[in-house]
Amino acid sequence: MRKACLAAREGVGREARAAAATRLFARLCALRGKTIAGYLPIGSEADPRGAMRVLCADNRICVPVVTGRGAPLRFRDWTPGCAVAPGDFGVMVPTEGGWRMPDVVIVPLVGFDGRGNRLGYGGGFYDRTLAGLTDTLIVGFALDAQRLPDLPVEPTDVALPWIVTESGVFGTGDAV
Ligand SMILES: Nc1nc2c(c(=O)[nH]1)N(C=O)[C@@H](CNc1ccc(C(=O)N[C@@H](CCC(=O)O)C(=O)O)cc1)CN2
Ligand SMILES: Nc1ncnc2c1ncn2[C@@H]1O[C@H](COP(=O)(O)OP(=O)(O)OP(=O)(O)O)[C@@H](O)[C@H]1O
Predict the structure, then answer these.
(1) Which of 19, 25, 151, 168 could form a disulfide with 51 if both were Cys (CB 3.0 to 4.6 A apart)?
(2) Where do the domains of the chain lie?
């Protein structure tokens, strides 16, 4: 399933990617004074940086950092153009800045289904991280091509209450 989702994600064109970015911003544009975790995209992931750049005028933006195998992610301050270096798994991470507890987390993903179940790269990093966050707005960000029929669910999987793609903003559960 991961391979199929990644192949489908790679085939998505510029227009759909731009539309997804616009939808993400539309979902989050009312936020003020929040700490928002975005991410620095790898491979063909949907790119949230346009929204992050605009949202940082009125909010604090941070991005995930892997601090150990089996550990939750930590989130470090990010601003447009800040110093970054390659971290674990080839993801860029800020080289300095404060560590934050986010109020909002934009979650990258490999695949998703109509119930908000999420397939990641398989490290369990977001599952472990989201399990430890309460009162947090969790928004999955993806492209329609990444949608799958119902995914198998494991006890540690954390479903996404919201998913944004180029075709809309989907509330998938009642935890909204
Ligand atoms: N942009 C982004 N940042 C993120 C994640 C993510 O999924 N996306 N993570 C989510 O947990 C964490 C990093 N964990 C990761 C774990 C495994 C792989 C991985 O297996 N990558 C593939 C190739 C990726 C590609 O080029 O598309 C590999 O190394 O073979 C990537 C990230 C934190 N930061
Ligand atoms: N809260 C948790 N506590 C302990 N182990 C966990 C937790 N969440 C997930 N795991 C473990 O992490 C491993 C990978 O999980 P899974 O395959 O769901 O990752 P993923 O969601 O695809 O990846 P990621 O979240 O990194 O994008 C599994 O062995 C799972 O049991």
Answers:
(1) 25
(2) 2-170
Interface confidence, given as ipTM, is 0.92
Chain mean position to CA 94: 17
Residue 123 annotated as part of some ligand binding site? yes
Count the alpha carbons within 13 Å of 112 in the hemisphere toward its beta carbon. Answer: 25
2-170 CATH fold: Rossmann fold (3.40.50)
Structure-token match 């993801």, residue found: 91
DSSP lists the bridge partners of residue 166 as none
Among the bound ligands, name the one nearest to the CA of residue 151. 2
Ligand 1 in contact with 47 (CB < 6 A)?
no
115/108 Cα distance (integer angstroms): 16
The pLDDT tens digits for 90-140 are 999 999 999 999 999 999 999 999 999 999 999 999 999 999 998 999 999
Enter the pTM of the model: 0.95
131 touches ligand 2 (CB under 6 Å): yes
Whether residue 168 is annotated as binding a ligand: the answer is no
Q: What token pair was written down for 88?
A: 């674990």
- Give 16-48 pLDDT, tens digit per residue: 999 999 999 999 999 999 999 999 999 999 999
